[in-house]
Amino acid sequence: MEIAVAVTIGCVLDFAFGDPHWLPHPIRFFGWIISKGEAVLRRFCKSDKSEYICGAILTVLTLAIAFVIPFLILLLMCRINHILAIAVHCFMCYQIIAAKSLKTETMKVYAELIKNDIPSARKKLSWLVSRDTDSLDFSGIAKSTIETISENTSDGVIAPLLFMLIGGAPLGFLYKAVNTLDSMIGYKNEKYISFGRFAAKLDDYINFIPARISAYFMIIASFLCGFNAKGAYGIYKRDKNNHSSPNSAHTEAVCAGALNIQIAGPNYYFGKLVEKPTIGDAIRPVEAVDIKKANNLMQCTFVLVLIFSVLIRLIFFK
Length: 318
What we know:
Layout: H1 2-17, H2 26-41, H3 48-80, H4 82-96, H5 99-114, H6 118-126, H7 138-185, H8 197-206, H9 208-224, H10 229-239, H11 248-259, E1 262-264, E2 267-269, E3 272-274, E4 278-280, H12 289-316
Antiparallel strand pairs: 1-4, 2-3
């Protein structure tokens, strides 16, 4: 009951306030730990095997810190005052969810596109994605932004929500640490192919079920939002594996089908062209307004999963 209350209030706070830049955020702390830990452990990397071991050590230590610190804080708060513990738990849950910030940051790209300020749109997009944005045109910027929204619907919104409802804020922070590790060291390039392999594989495993839950709820959300739910399901079944990651294309495929557009395809990463299959059908050109539609789809999916998950928690885990 307390976990359900804390998660629900945390989600409401996120809807209302997002992530103010002035407010210290635990994810930045995770990033600092990963950066410092990598710098130390790199000294012991003499081969591919030692790089893999050091990357695994960094991953385990980061996850331990991410789980233990909030767990001990909540334990201490419970000993001081029960109401205080619930309040702190609500605040922790609020910091884990990133729905409002995802919408806020992607709508900054939308605002530049409708002004046709391509250089500014590229710059704002570069803050959100790892791909090179310097050569992207209007359509490429819009597609990349929609991909970011749809992919992060799962790993930035739905997955942490599900983990919090299972194990409260400590488990939610553990999930976010896995996600942060993958985004920082989970690349398949020369520098991280061995060092980040453990973190990347762990991210694949931990997101396997949430990605599929997110996709099916997004199909329902596409119907409720008045989008092409039949197309969302059809493209999902056809294109859900059109990505090197076993999880990323699931929500991307639903979003592309729901909006009757085509996304993904070849892109440049760190100056190197990476061939990737497309997702969806180019029934119509991608427009700036599709960024707004993708955000509406994300938020509706979020609300659906929240309501359903909280009800399940209250019914079966009293």
